[in-house]
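can u do me a favor
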């Protein structure tokens, strides 16, 4: 972002980074607390997988409504309301009790509703990006926002472990809930839906933003062209690739801590430290991917900047997953698998930048639909991974994820970031022409 012209944008993108971090803290804390929850409630891994999947089903189901709502009433209010909602249901996770009936249905319901609340965070955030961030800076902006995923998930094992050792597993959910509600209030006070509405916006910064936005991105409250969206090749290619992305990354979010504890026989404190490595790699690679994304796009065009980087990222991911799962030494395996997690996040900025590139005023809905694919993939891996591991071993579980990563790479070859969903003058892009640079 241009120095001297980015003060307000930098602050708000940093706040989205914080919200993203807390969102993943609130959704992955159960992966660490799950060890104690299983013992207390008598749940096996398969039933705990159902609880993990319940979050993702709720999250997936409300992606498109969240994106539509962000486009209608603005990302400021939608994000603030969503953070309060998910804070409440994070706290309610700790209040599940056998005295209220069967524990499993309670956990499934609470986690489903938590997922519904968290569904707003990235569609609303991307709606914000489409209105605030010039096209040439979206790679870096999304790199920062999604670096919060790695940061939040990376902080989860040591933070939640420390809270559990101090006050028990329930205390970890209460602390996470308070952090979320506080961050949501700060966001609401500081953010605005449009740059021109922000009291701290300078005329120079506003001019820079407007100069970098496509003309079609200026519209507000435009009727959603559902037919065009659901027949657009870019949309379905991104949905497919993000499904693969979700399958891979939720293996780490849901099962990596338990994999280390139960398959590699690592103790609780060591597991917490080892579990940080994939998420540190995600954070670093997400930031690096965003910067490389913008740099390559400026020099070689959007196809190579957005799509080329993503293809390479998915191929690297598949290779790392296969090699890491086969390693016999625990430290070597963790380092290689962490490399696979990081490689996946080289592509993260591409997904969210390209939807803002071609969907313009419908960014919230399109990115929500794309993200629904990610969460469906995550819900499947959350329940399927323990079954594959039990039947065929963890090497097969990681190998399955590598296969999906390969599918994700191929899908990116069908994306054309330069073809707008709606061309200036109201024309819509066709579904059959070849992507530029392919």
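np, heres the sequence
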């Amino acid at each position: 972002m241009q120095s001297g012209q980015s003060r307000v944008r930098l602050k708000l993108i940093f706040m989205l980074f914080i919200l993203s971090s807390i969102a993943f803290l609130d959704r992955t804390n159960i992966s660490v607390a799950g060890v104690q929850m299983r013992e207390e409630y008598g749940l096996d891994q398969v039933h705990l997988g159902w609880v993990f999947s319940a979050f993702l089903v709720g999250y997936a189901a409300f992606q498109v409504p969240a994106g539509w709502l962000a486009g209608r009433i603005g990302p400021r209010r939608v994000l603030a309301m969503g953070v309060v909602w998910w804070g409440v249901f994070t706290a309610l996770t700790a209040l599940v009790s056998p005295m209220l009936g069967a524990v499993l249905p309670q956990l499934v319901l609470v986690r489903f509703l938590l997922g519904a609340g968290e569904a707003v965070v990235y569609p609303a955030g991307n709606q914000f990006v489409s209105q605030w961030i010039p096209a040439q800076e979206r790679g870096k902006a999304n790199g920062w926002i999604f670096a919060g995923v790695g940061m939040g998930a990376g902080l989860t094992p040591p933070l939640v472990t420390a809270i559990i050792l101090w006050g028990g597993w329930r205390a970890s959910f209460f602390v996470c809930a308070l952090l979320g509600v506080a961050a949501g209030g700060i966001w609401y006070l500081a953010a605005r839906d449009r740059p021109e509405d922000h009291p701290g916006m300078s005329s120079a910064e506003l001019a820079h933003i407007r100069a970098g936005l496509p003309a079609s991105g200026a519209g507000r409250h435009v009727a959603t062209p559902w037919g065009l969206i659901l027949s657009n090749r870019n949309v379905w290619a991104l949905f497919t690739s993000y499904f693969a992305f979700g399958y891979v990354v939720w293996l780490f979010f849901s099962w990596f801590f338990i994999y280390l504890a139960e398959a590699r026989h690592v103790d609780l404190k060591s597991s917490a430290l080892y579990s940080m490595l994939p998420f540190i790699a995600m954070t670093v690679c997400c930031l690096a991917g965003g910067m490389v994304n913008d740099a390559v796009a400026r020099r070689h065009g959007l196809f190579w900047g957005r799509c080329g980087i993503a293809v390479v990222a998915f191929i690297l991911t598949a290779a790392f997953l296969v090699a890491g799962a086969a390693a016999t030494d625990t430290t070597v395996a963790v380092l290689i698998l962490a490399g696979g997690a990081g490689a996946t996040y080289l592509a993260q900025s591409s997904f969210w930048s390209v939807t803002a590139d071609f969907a313009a005023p419908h960014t919230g809905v399109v990115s929500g639909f794309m993200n629904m694919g990610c969460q469906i993939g995550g819900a499947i891996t959350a329940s399927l991974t323990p079954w594959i591991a039990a039947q065929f071993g963890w090497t097969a579980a990681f190998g399955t994820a590598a296969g999906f990563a390969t599918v994700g790479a191929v899908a990116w070859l069908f994306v054309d970031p330069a073809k707008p969903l709606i061309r200036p003058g109201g024309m819509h892009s066709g579904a059959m022409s070849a992507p530029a640079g392919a």
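Residues 216-220, 427-438 have pLDDT under 50 and may be disordered. hope that helps!!
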